[in-house]
Amino acid sequence: MFQHILVPLDGSSLAEAALPVASTLAEKLGASIILIHVIEKNAPQEIHGERHLTNPDEALAYLDQLAGRSFPAGIHIDQHVHTAEVSNVAGSIVQHAGEFSPDLIVMCTHGSGGLRDLLVGNIAQQVIARGTTPVLLIHPTSDTQRPFHCDKMLIPMDGKAGHEHGLDIAAGLAQACSAEMTLLLVVPTRGTLGGHQAATGMLLPGTMAALLDMNEEAAQEYLAGQALRVKKGSATISTAVSRGDPAAEIAGFAASRHTDMIVLGTHGKSGTDAFWTGSVAPKLTGLTSIPLLFVPVSPPEKK
């Protein structure tokens, strides 16, 4: 489970929205914290409407201040400022992840538009795509000191064995946080099918309807088996099968259950654009403000 948590900070109050989450998890898991700031080459004077930290001494003082006021006593906290200016901040964060070997990276997304627009070519998306460390993305909030609770977790499944690693991680985290888990599998409808499946649905609607019904029954059996596999002690695990567009169904289900965290298994791929290929992630991240934990299920492909 997560014992070393890396929190990248750029000096903005928006980025500090990651701190309450990191603090709560560190306290529940007995984990240590590493606060990091990377000095960006040719950095703009402002970032997210605030003065950009480009002076190493000032940046270290900033991290020290956050360490003192954002975490309870007893949590071990290290601060690191990468003083050599870099052009690729995301690449530097990934390199530091290799150096410090964190189990988890907690970072905030910035802006108010859809997260897909924010992440394509952006730092958070690149860190997820290029790294092998789970990344917990937090949406910015005006109240950076708002407590974070991890009482209810949603784990979307797709029936693929490779993505079950995300469930294993979620189960360990749920046990540490005494959280309820819900496993959700979304079976598409004819209207949400894509590619050759959509063509089959148009030509043979009766056959496709029967196939989708069969998939729903199989989905229920699959989720029951997975719940039994990861259940430990008195843990509360429920399962649900929904029908429709996966991203919309996941976002709606999570909101209706007042979910605190959604856990998604992801495949690292070469190139940041490839990360989103065939994934519900770009749509889901634009539909919900609930924290999203991305768990790599395989190493990124080499270029």
Q: From the 3D structure, determine the CATH topology of the largest domain.
A: Rossmann fold
Per CATH, the superfamily of the largest domain is: HUPs
Mean pLDDT: 78
Q: Within the largest sheet, what's the order of strands?
A: 5-2-1-6-7-12-11-8-9-10
Structural class given helices, strands, pairing?
A: alpha/beta
Poorly predicted sequence stretches spanning 5 or more consecutive residues:
111-121, 194-208, 269-278, 299-303
What amount of the residues lies in strands? 15-25%
Q: Distance N terminus to C terminus?
A: 30 Å
The overall number of domains is 2
Tell me the name of the CATH class of the largest domain.
Alpha Beta
Helix-strand topology string? EHEEEHEHEHHEEHEHHEHEHE
Helices, by number, come to 10
Strands, total number = 12
- Approximately how much helix is present in the residues? 25-40%
Any guess at the CATH architecture of the largest domain? Answer: 3-Layer(aba) Sandwich
- Rg over alpha carbons: 20 Å
